[in-house]
Amino acid sequence: MSERRTKIVATLGPATDDPLILRQMIRAGVDGVRINCSHGTREDWLRHAWMARDAAASVGRHVAIMFDLQGPKIRLHESSKRLALTEGDRVRIVGDPKAPGATKSLIVEWPGLVDAVAGLDAAGKHPWPEPVSFHLAGGRLDWLGD
């Protein structure tokens, strides 16, 4: 049994879709495998999981299996990609391209972003003003509570 504390995790994909390759990887030290659920089907994910279990058993090891679940895809609206930002700018994030002032805002294609990030209070309202305003400083966005 190894005394190392660092674990090696390998993402399964087309290059590892062979039991022989997977056994070689586990013998070489892979402690866990990651299955990216953004690609493939449920059948593919289960097949990879069983292949990892079988490969580990065949070499006398246990491996962890992680399923990387897809969350919401938060993308900038096409018009936001042309917005030039400089140090000191006030940045607004809105979820609707037709919102007042949206032409000078970062528009995200997921309108629920504000609620998801801020969380809701007991009354079901988020504590941030609509739209959300940030200040670009030091390479980071700081929330403006006004």
The gist of it:
With 146 residues, the chain is an alpha/beta fold.
Low-confidence stretches: none
Strands side by side in the biggest sheet: 5-4-6-7
Strand content: 15-25%
The multimeric state of the shown protein is: single chain
Global shape: elongated
Order of helices and strands: EHEHEEEHEE
Radius of gyration: 23 Å
The number of E-state strands comes to 7
Can you give the helix content as a percent range? Answer: 10-25%
Calculate the mean pLDDT score and round it: 78
Supply the number of helical segments. 3
Distance between the termini: 57 Å
Q: How would you describe this structure to a colleague?
A:
The protein has three helices and seven strands, in the order E-H-E-H-E-E-E-H-E-E. It starts with 8 loop residues before the first strand and ends with a strand. Strand 6 and strand 7 form a beta hairpin. The protein has 146 residues and is an alpha/beta fold. It has helices at 19-27, 42-58, 113-118, and strands at 9-11, 32-36, 64-68, 90-94, 106-107, 132-137, 140-143. Helix content is 22%, strand content 21%. The strands form two sheets. It has a four-stranded mixed sheet, with no helix packed on it. A three-stranded parallel sheet has the order 1-2-3, with helices on one face.
